[in-house]
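Support case: nicotinamide-adenine-dinucleotide complex. Customer-provided input:
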Amino acid sequence: MTAFPAASPQARIWRDRADALINEHRLDGRAFIEGQRVAALSGASFDSGSPIDGRVLTAVARCDAADVDAAVQSARRAFEDGRWARQAPAERKRVLQRFAELMVQHKDELALLETLDMGKPIQYSLSVDVPLAARCINWFGEAIDKVYDEIAPTAHTALALIQREPVGVVGAIVPWNYPMLMAAWKLGPALACGNSVVLKPSEKSPLSALKLAELAIKAGLPEGVFNVVPGYGHEAGQALALHMDVDALGFTGSTRVGRQMLAYSAQSNLKRVFNELGGKSAFIVFDDADSIERAADTVAGSLFFNQGESCNAPSRLLVHEAVADEMVARIVAQTTRYQPADPLDPSTVMGALVDEGQLRTVLGYIDAGRQEGARCVAGGAQALAEAGGQYVQPTVFDGVRHEMKIAQEEIFGPVLSVIRFKDEAEAIRIANGTPYGLQASVWSQHIDRAHRVARALKAGTVHVNQYDEDDITVPFGGYKQSGNGRDKSLHALDKYTELKTIWIRINPQ
Ligand code: NAD
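Agent response - structure generated as follows:
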């Protein structure tokens, strides 16, 4: 990791830790099935490389249908014999809380895996990804012995019990942008309810998921309840989604692949599919917003966070024409704070894009923006090529029209599209004018307008005068082609439980 100039003492510490992990071959890319590390049955593997500098981290098991079948069988056995499903909720809670504690104890290693694998700054892996993932596991564990079932208000001649039961074997397929956190959003509720899980991490970031499986076993989760099958989407992912013995599929990823998940379900056993998909979130600033400065700081901070690789990134700024010049000038000034640098330096705020393919995709959208006539007023180019990694400058396009590609499609990189509007009706029409509906934000001091616009927006979450609030207690998910079902909060339990009604006759004598 020497390509970055003038490493601070803190950066050197993390680089040394990374070197030790990689050079001493302590990274294990084998699958995790039936409580054990195993190579793919075919013996195949692929190299997992780091987008920080192109270095190979380790060989990862290239699981295919045979490995997935072994993992599903293991999960099924574990589910049917009740080694986890029939434990008292208080006991499952104890194990999940221990699991979360172990995650916190291993936070440096987990954070390093995340940063090396997908390029995000180490400070955020440490302060965001690991603690939020651990909190998610802990929260669902804590919650599960406080969830009551129901008795329906029927006539006196019978009793109708409405009970939640675990669905059985849950397949979880997750992306690379928050590898551990997205896994935790599936694992927390699915395990708390008593299900067995087979997790397929992204081929671009499999290492933290594999480590999580080790920690779960150490925490007391019985063997077979949580299996991890790394591999490619069209191999391991497809095999899991098509498997006849998987009862529910929790998918987080692109809308394109989410559509395929529904097709796989239709082609196989009609397994329940819950899709958490892409977004093109609108950040709407009216001319009566209380602080243009705070709005500009917020949109820049939220969009450039995680290199723009967030499903809920506010990638479209819709700004009233009266305040647009000031807003754009402030955001452009902010881009100096978000220049990419060494992800292993704890002062870095913008890291590497996940791989060369993603860099090409983002640069392709930047070209498209220029060709369609938008004005690139900041960034617009690759950065730090000499480091051997995948970096791009924070980029702002002004003068974007609603129909342009960069206004309609999810870029998944640090690129902001600024669209000016004249009135409220136009702002709502533009905001709702994409296939997506994940999040939005409204900036106005006018209480009627804030409520009116929040109600009119077709999005799973609408923020008013902020964008940063987030908590495990609130549901997360999208309208329209951003998906269905909700992660986080008690609503997530709906995805991983079946509702069973038991009618009991009551003899009136
Ligand atoms: P992706 O759809 O390419 O891949 C997601 C997962 O699906 C990976 O594990 C991949 O291997 C697997 N996969 C790919 N093709 C498959 C196939 N044919 N069959 C089965 N599995 C397959 O997405 P990505 O590039 O990893 O992640 C970025 C996307 O995820 C963005 O669109 C982003 O918005 C979305 N995302 C959504 C949320 C949310 O909560 N709504 C959160 C994070 C990311």
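The two ends are 82 Å apart (CA to CA).

Case will auto-close in a few days if no follow-up is received.
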